[in-house]
Inverse folding.
């Protein structure tokens, strides 16, 4: 599933190129996760002003509204001046004066939703519950630490659920916990302030490194210009079960948490 780094890499790969484009046509294919929210022709003639990100949502601001895009489990966006004819898994297309933006989503868990602004009830429903943005100034340590102290869940689950901090997906949670020296099964409330600070900094470090590496391409992720990510080539524990830890040579272990695989070093990471 594309996580925050992959979505941010996607945003950066086409945001400048589409800014100022006039929308000429909109094509909506098979139903996605949520209804489009109106008549697609309503977007025709509107101007794309900016492309932002909130968690794993891309927000395309126009001079009259807001288009929310989500990549779901297996979706990807492409933006180019010309693209081949739409295929069976191409379910949304925005034709503009500067190029074509196309959503390809084989499993159709993604979404393209049009609203009239972030105060729209649909936008509030999709975005209102999201936690702090870890790559922005709103990621405040005191709030992060208080959120950990208030939770009886495992720290891995707290990082994944998105209510305290958004975008720390399975790969990045495992990597951040390794850097902070914390076992993924540790109860969040039991983590000391000192170790919480280490985790707070590790989350930022891992996510920034992933963005700089173009995200992770484990299956078919690529940015809107077709580039693959390379972060998976530098992971310390994720996907390395039974391989020696790069730090201490202890074999990396894996445990299932909430149907997700958590990778850790039993020597370097402690409760």
């Amino acid at each position: 599933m594309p996580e925050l780094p992959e979505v941010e890499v996607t945003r950066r790969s086409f945001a400048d190129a589409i800014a100022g484009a006039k929308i000429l046509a909109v094509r909506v294919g098979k139903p996605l996760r949520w209804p489009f929210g109106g008549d697609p022709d309503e977007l025709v003639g509107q101007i794309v002003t900016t492309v932002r990100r909130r968690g794993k949502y891309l927000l395309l601001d126009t001079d009259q509204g807001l288009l929310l895009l989500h990549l779901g489990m297996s979706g990807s966006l492409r933006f180019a001046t010309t693209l081949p004819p739409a295929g069976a898994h191409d379910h949304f297309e925005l034709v503009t004066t500067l190029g074509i933006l196309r959503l390809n989503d084989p499993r159709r868990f993604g979404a393209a939703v049009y609203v009239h602004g972030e105060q729209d009830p649909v936008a509030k429903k999709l975005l209102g519950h999201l936690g702090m943005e870890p790559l922005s100034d709103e990621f405040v340590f005191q709030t992060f630490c208080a959120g950990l102290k208030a939770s009886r869940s495992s720290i891995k689950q707290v990082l994944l659920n998105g209510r305290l901090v958004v975008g720390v997906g399975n790969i990045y949670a495992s990597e951040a916990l390794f850097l902070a020296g914390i076992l993924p099964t540790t109860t969040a409330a039991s983590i000391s302030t000192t170790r919480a600070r280490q985790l707070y900094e590790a989350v930022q470090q891992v996510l920034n490194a992933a963005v700089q590496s173009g995200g992770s391409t484990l299956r078919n992720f690529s940015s809107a210009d077709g580039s693959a990510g390379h972060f998976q080539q530098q992971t310390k524990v994720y996907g390395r079960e039974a391989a020696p830890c790069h730090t201490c040579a202890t074999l990396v272990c894996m445990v299932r948490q909430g149907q997700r695989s958590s990778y850790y070093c039993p020597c370097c990471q402690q409760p």
In short: The mean pLDDT is 92. DSSP finds six helices and ten strands in the chain. The helical segments are 4-18, 121-127, 141-149, 155-161, 170-180, 193-212.
